[in-house]
Structures are given as structure tokens and as C-alpha cells.
From TrEMBL:
It is a single-pass type I membrane protein. Residues 111-131 are annotated as: Disordered. This is Mab-21-like HhH/H2TH-like domain-containing protein. Pfam families: Mab-21_C. Residues 37-64 form a coiled coil. It is found in: Membrane. It comes from the Eukaryota. Belongs to the ITPRIP family. GO terms for cellular component: membrane. Residues 401-454 form the Mab-21-like HhH/H2TH-like domain. The chain crosses the membrane at residues 83-101. Gene3D superfamilies: 1.10.1410.40.
Amino acid sequence: PSVSAATMASAIFYFLAFLGLVEGPKGVGDELDEATNARMRQYAEEMQQRMAQLLLEIEALEKQQSSMHMGALLLSAMQTWQFWAWLGVILLYILNAWLLFRDLLGRENNREEESSSSDDDQQNNNRNRIEERDEGRIFAERIQWPVQHIQINCQVMMSMVGDLLYFIKRSLSNTYFPVLHPPIGVGSAFEGWTPLEDYNIVYRIFVPITAPRGHSFHLELGNEEELPSKNSRIRVELECTCAREQSFGNVLCFLHQPEEELRRNREPSLLQTLCTGSYLDVHKTSFWFQQMMKAAWKFLPESARHHIGVLPSRRSCKLRVFDAFDRIRFVELIFGVQQGDSDIFLSSENTDAIFTPDTVWPQSCRVAEMKFFRYIKAHAPQDSYHLRCMQLCARIVVGNDFTPYVLKTVVMHLLNTIPLESWCRREFLQRMDDIMEYLHCCIVEKRLDHFFLGNKEVPDEVTLHPDFLTSSPLNLFQHMAEDPNVHDRALREFQVLRNRLRRLLTFGN
């Protein structure tokens, strides 16, 4: 018997179903998702298995024929339409299977190419963002920063001066000379932004003084409408110590003691030693302190490892310190009288005038400035670059009409405005541009406000005198507003500054 018509019809049915599965219509513009492809492969495998089963049935039916008539049966089968239909099924199955495989392979390759292209685009975008972010790092690392060991040297200098002051204070405990208090490091070195190499740095240290027993200091600010005062003085007055003399027995009252007893005591008052008239004399105070430093140094253990030389100065005590390796450090001791409980002092520093009288103690904000930078350091991220910005500003103003103090004022205003997180190294270039733009706007407007006067945004860690809080802001560029020639020169000098900065950022020096 030949293969049944029902069996061949079933084979043709499954073949047509298989074609419908493979070449079935798709929506316009739709792509088969992964789940649909999986179902198609599953159905194709099921059709393949079913067709294979039908072929096995056909083969079994063929084997039932007599082996003697195999050749005749085969010739007869080839002449029937069932054989050609069966062969067509096999060929079409192979063709469509190949087309399906090619289609799936092409889609997979396209998907990989799209994924690879997307990954490349993402990597390029990330690389561009990283390069933009690291632009500030590149310029910051290109600059040749000075070789410094500021923190260690500041600690060494403060320790040495502290020991000296402690020894002098003990030796003056029963005298009528000013009382010395613990030193305070001020200036660019202690604020952390000095642009100089180690061997050129001047370590400025504030030495607060108060009146000795039987005396009092009265601060006279001169014109209180002009702050910080440049003509302030310290008036010294005698106080009655009779009650204390009765309690302790060794206190001399300069007001009520008989003149003969005062002469016999041979202990002069402060008015007789360090004053001119009734006012404390800066030059006399500095000379007296220099002599005390020379006498006290040889009694300190540091004298075995260091050597100091006292340099001449009318308004401070300047020291040249040689360590065991013959390295030189310069120290300047500045005297100051605190104004109330604030961080404002009347200091022995020079004023901007050509000549400063010996009885003038100008108001100083050095301690307040140091505390502001200390506050910023405590609250800024560890990688903050605000001190590098200030250091770079101090480098470009060398030989320029603008002073480091002007750029320092600009930086303090910006530190009080721009979030501290934005002063990191990757934004170093942007912050330098902000500083230059702020300075340029101030020059154009002929106005730069003093940082502390009338500024309500000063951190609480900095204690200002009430006069500073209620005062109107002081214009540091008032001279530009008064003289057009000065303003024109300032604009030209600003261009010089900007060109220096560009050259420094480009070439590193």
C-alpha cells in the first residue's frame, strides 16, 4: 500500500502552518521583540518535530512493502503527486528555516551595533564631561607653586615666640611695664596663602598687651566716622591702688604715695618709661621689647639649636632666626591693644601715610581676617582650593598698583557668597574668572567695600566691634571716584593683571 492521502494532507497542513508562522504579517514599522522571537522559534521547533514524525510514519509505511518490489514501488511513488508534494515540503522547510535564521541573525547584529554605538556615544559624553570637569585640575597642576612648609614653620615660630613671651612675662610680673599675652599668628603665612618661598616668608605675630597694675589704657579713635581709624591713640592713666596696697602690702599707688617714697622705691610708672606725654609711644615700646628679647633668648632651650638676630625697627620687633641647618626665618612681632572684647586691635603697624607719629596706633583687622580664614578652612571641603586662588592673586599683583589686600578683600567677599563646595580644584579656573570679573566690576563702578565695615554677613566666629557693625561700608576705591586719571590707570593695570593670569595659567610661571 502507498502512503495514505490523510497522512500527506497532514504534512501539507503543518507545512502551510509553518509558513504562516515564519512569514506572518507584522505591523507597519514594528520590530519583533525578544519574547516574540522566542515564541516563533518554539513554534518552529514544534512544527519541525511534527513534520519529522509524519516523515517517519511515511517511511514506516514504505518499509511494509515487499523488498522484492522496492524498485517498482519507488518508481511508482516518484510518478505520483504525493512524492513531489513531500519533496516540496522538505525543500520549502529548509528554505524558510534558512530565511528565519538569517532574519534573526541580522536583527541580533543590528541590536549589537546599536548597543555598541550607544555605548560609544555614552563613553564619549562621559569623557567630554570628565574633560570639562578636569579642566580646572589641568591648569592648577600646570602652575609652579612655591615650595613651602607653612604649617610646620608656623607652629615652630609660634612655639618659640610663645616661650619667649612667657619668660619675659614672668620676669616683669612685679614691674609697671605692659603685660604681655599669648601671641596670635596673623598675615598671609598663618592664613595659608603666602605666595613666597620658605626663605622669603615673614611670619607676622600679634602680641596683645594690657596695662600693668596701677594703670589703665583708654583708646581714642580720633575721627570715629572714619573707620578703621588711622589716627587712634592709647592714653595711659594712673589708677588708685591704695586698697590693694593695704591687702597685699607690695603695691605702689602712684596717685597718693608721697614723692619721697616714690623716688626711694625707684620703680617708675609706665608714664615715665614708655609714654610720650600721656600717650603710649610705639617706638619706645618697640625698643624696650627688643631689649627684652635679647636678654631672654639666652635663657631658653631653643638657644642651643637656633640663633636669633634682632633687626632695627621703629614700630615692631623684627627677628632673623637661624636654625641648626643655617636656614633663615624672618619673624615680625606686632603689638596691639584689644578694643573691648572684639577681634579689632589698635596696633603698632604703620599707616599708609609717609610718616606715622610714634603715638599713633592705627586700628587693625588682622586678627579678624585671620579668624575669617580659619572659619573658612574649618567649614570648607578638604580639597578646597580657595587658598590657592588667593595665593595666585598675590603672585600676579607683584609690581602692580593693586595690592594683595585689594585682591584679598575681593576673595573674602566671594568666599562669603559662593558655596564653599564650589571652591574645589576642578572649579579652580571658574573661581579665578569670578575673582577677575568681580574686581573688574568694582573698578568700573569705582567701588570696593571694606569686608568688615557694615557687613552683616560676617560669620559669628569673627567678633566685630559694635562700631563696625553700625558703620557705613568704606569704599576702598574712593580715590578712583575722585580722580578720573586714577580710574583710567586702574583699568589699564587690570588688563595687565588679566594678562599675567592668562600667562601663568598657560605656561605655569
